[in-house]
């Protein structure tokens, strides 16, 4: 199988274009890229520096100390884990790719979902099915639709065997409630599915009423959990990801498969980064406090942008975790049509060209291209420099900061004009 | 296509086993792992530290400054290169994997060759053909055998379209002479093959008479060159690799495909590592001097171990670059049989169990399992600690250093007993 690639992963591509426009001096509000635009926590930098002299190849699975820390991290989240169940990698992305190569069968995805799951399935020669999400949350397929899709796929002779869930979700910024997760797990048991649970936004739940239940707590023998430090600690540029495998012998078999793929595709996470991982996953109090402050800030901005969308007449699931909102302008279709906006492509283009507001069009996340939906990463609104970003993080009322108010006003005015 | 993985890449796996034995206090001479066991050059560490605060995602292709430096690196090697032709990645391994996914057709490999080429081809759903190397060098298929293999494969309806060459070679430590490279290029033209030229050992040619010719100098439109800093600068643990694509529109199409695969599989090289790359590929005089000293040391040890093998009666291509030797004990088959050594598996086991000498068995590199061949990485003999390693690097006569003499004596005695 040889895959023809036509384009770069759309989020990274758009980020590049936005940076080019910025470099030309254009004023943009960039919410198109899923990055927590915050400075690195100083102790993380210290640990990277402390590990800087470690130049030799490490174990494919990761350093013992780092795997020990990661096992503690999961164990503290009601997922008892031994270091043997852990692999570290340069990001969770390569781990998800390896899982796609190792696990048999086709892949069931929420629709919309993160724009890398489906291309990875295709790279591994798999079919990927997009299944609508429930009305109240994203990150999981709607359970009835999931059952129907499995049945339909099997009638065609296909073999759906993997379901991917994102808890909390990218792109909707919502967290599937425990009951929905239990339903997905029950279906996985009945239909013999493996669950890949992407929990990279887990520590960024900002709705204090929201409860997170991992499928690994319900059907641990059929769940691989992936996570990383890119989102919770805003170090996407350092590329540190982890996977947690079931402790069963079948789980260890999957781990061995991923380790084998790792050894042929990327070898190992860079050693200096493993020093960072050993510190970060041990979660000392100062780091927990920092992550908590970060989550609070994400919540403030996500709710503010959510409010703008809903006030303008769009529907939008209320964000509970991560740093995204995913509005739907269907109720305003007639109004948008007056501006030539009739689908997600023209919606994205209009916002960028008319108002300098960059968002990621819904169809790039597997959603219906005729729908009027986009993903906005509200984590890009903390400021242009570290000073503004630290101010946002430390402010008791970040929305009152002038630079943030300016972003929000600009978004509010643009959305008001769009919907007029 | 779903691949069943049975084992970890054998070199990394063996390294892990050797480390476990060492941790138990056993005295080992480990030549099983292709690492330059040397400290990092201090300025490299300085640049990693200087880049440590760079926490945001970078461009998929690599930072402008790093790509500029890499383009200079190749241009200084008679491969005129613009930054557009360059992609950086966490190692050359993921770049080779992406090339396997992007380039159409089956893969033609030298036999023996680096143990990752064939598994990557299989991961990409390709067939891999191992073609014997010439008598005088490794890293390239013997030209007549290459022609025959292409013909035979096509008769079976297969589609060999890619040939991989390694200049200088892993595992034989030899450099294919320019005439042989030209022959391979001529075949590539006739048969419409794409050439992947792995030049990661390029700066470690230690035979001053040896001349390197890259296929990219001969048929530039059909060659992708890969390289990295793991070998020449002994920073395998930092994972810094590069690829250079042809400047033609077809070449840019391949580059776009690799960029697309990169964006879905690994995103980007960690930003702090891009600061290292920008410095290292600019090759300031102090770094060139360091690499030259390293290459001299590699040559000293490779020739010493080569001498031991040949003196014992084995045949062995004389090493010219990199840090490997690849002896063949066929002339001593009857002697080895007295010790129960009858194939490459039992040869490797015997050396490890009887003498504590770890080498990589030839069949793990695609070679005939009945042959009595192995790869020895002589770069592992510089010492157990940085002090010994710096002493090795700075010594006018490194072979005279007590710790190195001890390694060599132990190898010499073991080989003598094996061949008795």
UniProtKB/TrEMBL annotation, chains A, B:
Its EC number is 2.6.1.-. One of its GO terms (molecular function) is L-aspartate:2-oxoglutarate aminotransferase activity. PANTHER family: ASPARTATE AMINOTRANSFERASE. PROSITE patterns: AA_TRANSFER_CLASS_1 (PS00105). SUPFAM superfamilies: PLP-dependent transferases. Belongs to the class-I pyridoxal-phosphate-dependent aminotransferase family. Pfam families: Aminotran_1_2 (PF00155). The keyword ATP-binding does not apply. Keywords: Aminotransferase, Pyridoxal phosphate, Transferase. Gene3D superfamilies: Aspartate Aminotransferase, domain 1 (3.90.1150.10), Type I PLP-dependent aspartate aminotransferase-like (Major domain) (3.40.640.10). It is an enzyme of class 2 (transferase). It comes from the Bacteria. Transmembrane segments: none annotated. This is Aminotransferase. It comes from Nocardiopsis terrae. Residues 28-376 form the Aminotransferase class I/classII large domain. The keyword Transferase applies. Its cofactor is pyridoxal 5'-phosphate. InterPro entries: Aminotransferase_I/II_large, AspAT/PAT-like, NHTrfase_class1_PyrdxlP-BS, PyrdxlP-dep_Trfase, PyrdxlP-dep_Trfase_major, PyrdxlP-dep_Trfase_small.
